[in-house]
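for the writeup, i need someone to sanity check this before i put it in the appendix. the sequnce is what the collaborator sent (i think, or maybe the updated version? ugh). structure was predicted straight from it, no edits. if anything looks off just tell me and ill rerun, i have time this weekend
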Amino acid sequence: MASMQKRTIAEPYRIKVVEPLRMTTREYREERIREAGYNTFLLRSEDVYIDLLTDSGTSAMSDNQWAGMMLGDEAYAGSRNFYHLEAAVQEIYGFRYVVPTHQGRAAEHITSQLRIKRGQYVPMNMYFTTTREHVERAGGIFYDCIIDEAHDPQNPHPFKGNVDLAKLDHLVQEKGRDQIAYLSIAPCVNMAGGQPFSMANLREVAAWADRHGIPIIFDATRAVENAYFIQQREPGYEGKPVREILREMMSYGEGCTMSSKKDNLVNIGGFIATNNEQFFTRAKEMVVVFEGLHTYGGLAGRDMEAIARGIYEMVDDLYIASRVRQVEYLGGRLREGGVPIVEPVGGHAVFVDAKRFLPHVPQEEFPAQALAAALYVDSGVRGMERGIVSAGRDPATGEHRRPNLELVRLTVPRRVYTNLHMDVVAESCAALYADRESIRGLKMVYEPPELRFFQARFEPIVP
């Protein structure tokens, strides 16, 4: 009898509603990318065939979530849906206090403003764009404490999101404990290629933080994917439910910021969660100023209900295994086509290594941006740049930050596409790789002062 381990495992759901996709010609796409300034963020959704720009807010909600949307209590104060959300966070994440926000950036803003004194450092296991922006707006200084392996796209380390304790020790010795506001720890580090940390490393970090009296605040956006990788890769966690692993992970922190548009399977929303009552009280006061009352935080009651139900759905082992396996499937197809990617494949996206893909395009000519534009022209697939454009400029020198990783992120939305869509993406990337010498660099012709990757515009460099 054939082993069940080798048989195909299908998605643990069936499709109930479909949205037609629009296919366009190459000539049409060439005109659209010119109009968009060769920035995939500036394309119109209707002109995109397969949209892998982000997994943020692009999930397909379940029938149970849609049913919950019809039960929205839109009272200004004390909506029953808030209490459903609060109970879900308490049960699944383990934090006592919850403040809803309209999305993750609001949670980052409030946390940064309340926790950072000007000149303090915030160590992170690699930066994320909006997180660092809010830290710097509050007068803080980003400090990268991720292990060195994370900066090498070919390194096979299974937990490249791990924190380097020696780097934390160096920061304390050089700046002093009082100059550290908190540790910002992200599961499945986005800018490193969706790379997880191990539970063993997290325990060591938590012990270090406890010795120094420094709180850990998770950016919990993709914590369930990290829990899945721990289940699959870390000794002692084989067979343990993802739900239990997530709860243990969160137990090592004082709280978290959350963009519910990822793990929680909704199109809008977020929250702050914490066990610190004093911080909770101050966050409630600030959310009223910037978002709305502390029992809705800029969200409709129906949206809070969808988040609450999504929190329970996200920790289903069959669902999360299917979600990550689809990303791994795309990574495997890209490998078959010879396309250089970040290894190991991460939890939410496959990251194409633009430095190895386009070695003839220097970093100052934005190779990842050029490759993302070329991919759209070839097939209508929209990815995004994660390299020198996303890194921005050093506020002290005004010079481009030059990250080691120059990547195109192909982000897979949850419960949206089939593996045939992944085949289309992989075949397009392979075709471009075979003809890579024809792809030229870009010059930036418009640059916003902050988070430039969203709105910058480019033109091709003509030899």
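The chain has two domains: 17-48+317-460, 63-314. The chain has 16 helices and 14 strands.
thx in advance!!
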